[in-house]
Amino acid sequence: MSTADYKTMTTAEIREDFLKFFEGKGCKLYPSSSLIPEDPSLLLANAGMNQFKEYYQGTKTMKEIGATSCQKCLRTNDIDNIGDARHLSFFEMLGNFSFGGYTKADAIAWAWEFITSPEHLGLPKDRLYMTVFEDDDEAVELWHSHGVEYDHISRLGADDNFWAAGPTGPCGPCSEIYFDQGPEFEGEKPGDDGDRYLEFWNLVFTQYDRQEDGSMPDLPHRNIDTGMGLERMAAIMQHKGSNYEGDVMTSLIKLGESLSGKEYHGSSKEPQDKSLRILADHSRAVTFMIGDGILPSNEGRGYVLRRLLRRAVYHGRLLGIEGAFLTKYAHEVERIMGEHYSEIVTNKALIDGIITAEEERFGATLNAGEAMLGDELDKLAEGAVLPGEVAFKLHDTYGFPIDLTREIAESRGHKVDMEAFDREMDAQKERARATANRDAWGKANNVWAALSDRLSASEFAGYDSDVLDGCEVVALVRDGEEVKDAHEGEKVEVVLDRTTFYGEMGGQVGDTGRLTAEGVELRVEDTKHREGGFIAHECEVVKGTVAVGDRVEASVDHGRRELIRRNHTATHLLDAALKAVLGEHVSQAGSLVAPDRLRFDFTHFESVTADELSRIEGLVNAEIFAAKPIVTKVMGLEEAKASGAVALFGEKYGDVVRVVSVGTEDKPFSRELCGGTHARNTAELGFFKIVSESSVGSNSRRIEAVTSAGALEYVDELLAEMDEVASALKCRPADVLARVEQLKDERAEAEKKLKAALVGGSSNQVADALKGASDMGAYKLVVAHLKGISGKELRNVWDTLRDKIGADCACVLASEADGKVALLAAATDGAVSAGFSAGNVVKEISGLVGGRGGGRPTMAQAGGKDASGIDAALDAAKKLLGA
Q: What is the pLDDT of residue 444?
């Protein structure tokens, strides 16, 4: 079978052609969502339909007939298989979707047109095969109506051709499209384990709603969900047999060849080929994950990133690549794919910084892991097997690859108990699977979805005014249910057609205030954003009754709002200052904008120094003291990005956005996309003060700060505390530092005198010890229990004893201080010649105080934890020495 009987297309050409094709059919083009899914039940975006979940559930309605997208996806459930010809961690999924818009017949017709038309893929019809669900006669006939012969259509069971969201919920039959790669590949029919018939597109027809009793009534409308793996399609269109032979992966493999000096043969058996594939795959995944704001950590998606990154570094080592190298891969990924995914170009500095920091950190981890493994191997008898539990701990806790564990162990003559290791791995996967299998769909409908079917989203009219009259009550919600009215003393969520109240979003807390009408008053305790674009006022009815249809005056707590405005503007100034001082890799990773304070989390690889904090604070205050205007403009998203406006990771923006700038139009200090409320001029902030800087995880820092009234309150508290300290020290506040230094000197002198009193010649304890000295003939022996003396100070006691005795002598001393026991045995050379051995004495008695130790014949020490054994230890020493 010829491989040249159809045209060739690049990955970029296939992606563009697919999206334009379905746009031409009336589907709305959606950009890929972030790898960080909005759905909290998902760890990472793993399918094209993730961002359309709410449309499937019926909580949102799409105006267009359908949607199309190229979605970034990441799956690591089979990470150990990545590096073979098929499996990838990161991949692109082309898809077209319908939520009651177009039909199953349309989906099949369009799929056939796209894959066979010479204007598009133009694949040979005789090399295309379809599988359908065994009972789906409709799909069989639809394919046949387009010219697909019946012997090219296979019926498969539910395991292969029936999709379900979970045990209950949306489900339906699917139809997969296969390409015959030719007899040189193994395989006899579509759906088997061979590679001859390569599945590249799955059309899912979600039409049922499975109930707990197993029944499957029809959904209110039928859905279409398709997925075409772009890498697999690229391999087909480039006449290749593997996901790793398409143009994108080939480019990354060639980089690996250049860096390592190893040649790629495409073999599944050559270790170097597998390592080159893993590097190509993992480096792409790492680049996109960091580009979407995922940071390395020891849990969740951050752990997935760290594991992929470390696995790449390890395979680089196996290939002999010296030094840090992963940023070179990231740059190649940016070159190849940055035109379509601008976020990996925009966030280049962050990607480089995170990769570099993690490579350095993992280098240390590898060294530590090797040391721990060496200790474990030292414990084994010759030829013994290393326990699988040890290997798993190295893998799971320290990120030490099992392949490296086996290699090192075998070099020292030991096998690894892989059965035990695999059991631990399976148990871990089962725990992860149990978490992942929680109902990912939840309740399909709620009160806010129902409201969105008949009501428009709330209009926020609070940027320029805190009071708005004539607002209509369009809905009341209590305990998740719609109500017609609410009475005095009741709690209720009030939805208005328009409002001055800002609903909690983007880190800015919700407004408080009042809703009033004649004879009616509601206290707004908080304001939230709800599904469907509604702004919900969480209220208590203070007076009267409120009903749907009433008109009220919305009045925000002005003083609280003003403080929030100032702190929100301060976060923008802080973000710009951080970038200026620390570097462009800094990106906002979370924030809190409250009336009394602000909190700002950001990406950075090390603690911020005192000098850097001072410079950051200085830059922000310089902008405040310059009294610069804050200018807000509404513009198109692309125009905003072109103007240099900063967008937040994971934030979804509409086609029209608000851009908040601080400073002049041509050279603003800060410019961000933001829907929050802000000060009108930086001077309103008064001044800015950083309260604390701390770590909130690997590569992430937190600054807490205050402005305006909060800053004044903070400074007042510090000054009050300074006055109290000065009063206690009996000096002026300006003299506190000098007074503290004086007290430190006085304390040091007192401690010096105390030490001399405890261990010097004038010490009562030392004098008593001398009185109790035993005459051993050739030397004198002092055995004593001293109190309040550290182990280090026992040496000074020995020096004093030796000086006072003035002849050959030895001692066995015990002390207790701060809950710790110290033992010391020491002797002159003459005492040692007479048979005294300090090392032997300490070795014999240290166990009685819960410790161990040893040393030379002239000096030995030990530590212990059990002070109750001191007397027994000293008695044992006397008995040992015959005193």
A: 38
Q: Is the dihedral of CA 750, 756, 759, 765 positive or negative?
A: negative
Q: How far is CA 41 from the centre of its chain?
A: 15
Q: What are the Cα distances from residue 375, in Å, to 43, 365, 372, 389, 426?
A: 36, 15, 5, 15, 26
Pair 527, 502: CB distance under 8 Å: yes
**Which contiguous run of DSSP H or E holds residue 812?**
strand 809-817
Comparing CA positions, the residue from 769, 748, 765 lying closest to residue 757 is 765
Q: Which of 512-516, 684-688, 773-777 has the lowest mean pLDDT?
A: 773-777
Q: Please report, as a single letter, which amino acid is at residue 181.
A: Q
The 780-787 sheet, strands edge to edge:
774-775, 780-787, 809-817, 820-827, 859-864, 852-855
**CA–CA separation, 530 and 562 (whole Å):** 24
Tens digits of residue pLDDT in 372-431: 888 888 888 888 999 999 999 888 877 777 877 887 888 789 999 999 999 988 887 777
Other Cβ atoms less than 10 A from the Cβ of 167: the count is 11
Distance (Å, whole) CA 391 – CA 404? 10
331 φ, ψ (degrees, to nearest 5): -65, -35
C-beta separation of 860 from 842 below 8 A:
yes
Q: Is the model's pLDDT at 2 over the cut of 60? A: no
Helix (H, G, I), strand (E, B) or coil at 193: coil
d(CA 830, CA 81): 72
**Cβ(144)–Cβ(155) under 8 Å?**
no
Mean pLDDT of 657-677: 91
Cα radius of gyration rounded to whole Å, the chain: 37
The answer to whether 856 touches 843, Cβ cutoff 8 Å, is no
Query: How far is Cα 716 from Cα 810, in angstroms, rounded to an integer?
Result: 62
Does the CA dihedral 713-694-354-343 come out positive or negative? negative
CB 503 within 8 A of CB 524: no
Residue 473: alpha-carbon gap to chain centroid:
41
Q: What is the pTM of this model?
A: 0.69
Nearest to 57 by CA among 433, 438, 432, 439: 439
Contact between 87 and 78 (Cβ < 8 Å)? yes
CA angle, 736 as apex, 735 and 738 as ends, to 5°?
70
- The alpha carbon of 815 is separated from its chain's Cα centroid by a whole number of angstroms, namely 50
Pick the closest to residue 791 from 851, 713, 725 (CA basis): 851
User: In this structure, what token pair is assigned to residue 335?
Assistant: 């070159």
Residue with tokens 């759905």: 39
> 797-805 long-range contacts, Cβ below 8 Å, gap at least 24?
797/759, 797/766, 797/769, 797/824, 798/824, 798/826, 800/759, 800/760, 800/761, 800/763, 800/766, 801/766, 801/769, 801/770, 802/826, 802/828, 803/761, 804/761, 804/766, 804/770, 805/770, 805/773, 805/780
